[in-house]
Amino acid sequence: MNNRLEEIRKGQQITQEELASILEVSRQTISSLEKGRYNPSILLAFKIARYFNMSIEDIFIYEEDDENAE
Fold first, then answer.
1. How far is residue 42's CA from residue 16's CA, in Å, rounded to a whole number?
2. Which residues form the HTH cro/C1-type domain (predicted)?
3. 2-61 domain in CATH 2.40.30.10?
4. Helix axes of 42-52 and 16-23: crossing angle, nearest 10 degrees
């Protein structure tokens, strides 16, 4: 899953540390999310979307695998 978290966070001039503190996760979690190494739980995705006043779909981009597309 791709995401726009880094772009959105930087646009709001918020550091990874600040966002992590607000969301009650580690800075490493934010870094991993931004690099696409980690997909958030649904709860964390909602918290992120709510913080930025956006929909989950505006931040996280789900792309189906070609194998699963019908």
1. 20
2. 5-59
3. no
4. 120
Q: How far apart are CA 2 and CA 64, in angstroms?
A: 11
Give the residue from 1, 45, 5 showing the smallest Cα distance to 23: 45
Phi, psi of 22 (to 5 degrees): -60, -40
- Token pair of 25 as six digits: 């996760």
pLDDT at residue number 62: 85
| Per-residue confidence (pLDDT) for residue 12, from 0 to 100 | 97
The domain limits of the chain are: 2-61
